[in-house]
Amino acid sequence: MKSLFALVALAVVASASPIDGEQVPFALESFPGFSLDLSAQRLVEMQGQPPVWMSELEKIQAKQRGIKFFDITDTRDLGTVPRLQAKASFPSPNATEKVKPILKTLSTKGPEENLREFTSFRTRHYRSDTGRQSQVWLKKRISEITSEWGSKSLQNKIKISEFSHSWGQNSVIARINGSSTTDDGVIIIGAHQDSTNMWPFLPAPGADDDGSGSVTILESYRALLAADFHPVRSIEFHWYSAEEGGLLGSQAVAQAYEGHVNVIAMSQFDMTAWVKRGTREEVGLIMDFVDLPLTEFNKQLIDLYLDIPWVETKCGYACSDHASWRKAGYPSSFTIESTFENSNKNIHSANDRIDVSDEFSFLHMLEFSKLAVAFAVELGSVSN
């Protein structure tokens, strides 16, 4: 006999309509390729409330209602360790002669090729077989770009690693070690590699959320290597797992760094492709739950290096992986494709595809690759 939970879950699934042409399954046992126990209990933290235990199914339902949260089951101590050093200041950009030549080498060719491959997986859900396969492909692609574009001397400073997670899809980190012997600061540029549908067992190509951010920062990484940029401070590119599950991957990484790694600044790139028809092309700067001095620094970078303006916007509590670093006490910022109101409404569905609309723009993504390059060079070229 099925448990009461199973009967409830069956009722939830059975009441749903077919989505995007695929029939919703009507039994909990009919989800091959996933290791997601809908009855598993998770500790969830929402804004202004004490943490509560809820099932994985209840997490899915909360996400469907637009509720943002941290899943803190494995990271309950995040934010409790004292900072390694005092927060850094962010002076006005002054590395123009280093940044501008690199910007000229950025292209839409690589991001488009990479994103077509990245969205070919049925879903990149962090508890799916194809989610694990997409992560393996991503790490392999990062390694290929490193071998193809990095000089031997620069490759000797680079380490590409997986940050292991219990759910199978690991976060990926590419680190370019800095040359300074006195400054242990680290600059982080991040995106999340996973995708999800509102009902997670359905297809989720995740072209914009956050395939766009993932390949945007990958193109920035390629350009830095092609320019043979040897940073003074270490620079890390992060591709997080399980953002859609409650910022699980980035919380785990931030907790591992907390109190041990001197993170100077973290910049998150989540959704960089969408330009809503009839609106001005612009960079959305998230202004809530971020480090405001670092966000002001990003404004200066946009004014100096990009061809489009910035606009202030908000996205709410725990809305992307920058929130994990802020929780750990590190300066973090978040840029998005537009104001939150004008962002892509096809996310978390099978329609989050490259070809769904001419509003999906690789040229728009290119502006964000410029921003990531400028962020890395300006903050990675200085010491103390």
TrEMBL record:
Superkingdom of origin: Eukaryota
MF GO annotations: aminopeptidase activity; metal ion binding; metalloexopeptidase activity
Residue ranges of domain Peptidase M28 in the record: 172-365
Transmembrane segments: none
Enzyme class, first EC level, given as a word: hydrolase
GO biological process: proteolysis
Protein name: Peptide hydrolase
